[in-house]
Amino acid sequence: AGTLRAFGLEAENAAHIADVLAVAASATNSDVAGLGESMKYVGPAAKALGIDVEQTTAALGMLANANIKGSQAGTTLRSALTRLAKPTKQSSDMMKRLGFNAFDSAGKMLPMHELVRNLQKSTSGLTEQQRANAMATIFGQEAMSGMLALVEQGPDALKDLTQSLYESDGAAKQMAETRLDNLAGQMTILKSAVEGMKIELGERLAPYAK
């Protein structure tokens, strides 16, 4: 629900959001609760820049692979996007020097994997120290480690993960069915049924008990 609100989506998109979060959680070192926490911080900024929920979730999942999770991942990505949208003079000068651009000719932000690809290319000739310094100058100290992690994992990995999220419909239901297809799962279903029966009986008997 929080992710829906952050991206201005309708309730009818809830099932797809559940699928997106489920696939990202299974494909990366993240979990659904952590991704939801991250979205509270980065969702509105991503939406404002035209970055959809699938691209944002994929980037958060890859940050989680680098052990940048939850609120830290959300603030890291938000800070990076904000610095690109409103760069300081130092960061603007550094981007020009490197030939790095995060926007197309119409002023629209590039898809996340293309942004990371451009960043990877523009810093490929630098030493590790120079690359870290360039990242810190462009994105700030807070977001530097996250952007380095995305560059190190690579734009192709980000693109593939994003595509799998676009194609994720039905994944959450399938995962749930798989998890329940064993004795422990059947016990969970039984307990749920018993709880439902208790609620139903309670509601029907309550007037007489009173």
Give a written overview of the molecule.
The relative contact order is 0.12. The protein is an all-alpha fold and 210 residues long. It is elongated and about 80 Å long. The protein is built from twelve helices and no strands. The mean pLDDT is 89. The longest helix is centred in the last third of the chain and has 27 residues, at 183-209.
Give a short overview.
With 210 residues, the protein is mainly alpha-helical.
Query: What is the straight-line distance between the termini?
Result: 38 Å
- Give me the secondary-structure category: mainly alpha
Helix content, binned percent: over 70%
Record field, number of beta strands: 0
- Succession of helices and strands: HHHHHHHHHHHH
Q: Which strand-content bin applies to the residues?
A: under 5%
Instruction: Provide the low-confidence segments as ranges.
Output: none
Number of helices: 12
Global Rg: 22 Å
What integer is the average pLDDT?
89
Sum up the overall morphology in one term. elongated
Major β-sheet annotation:
none
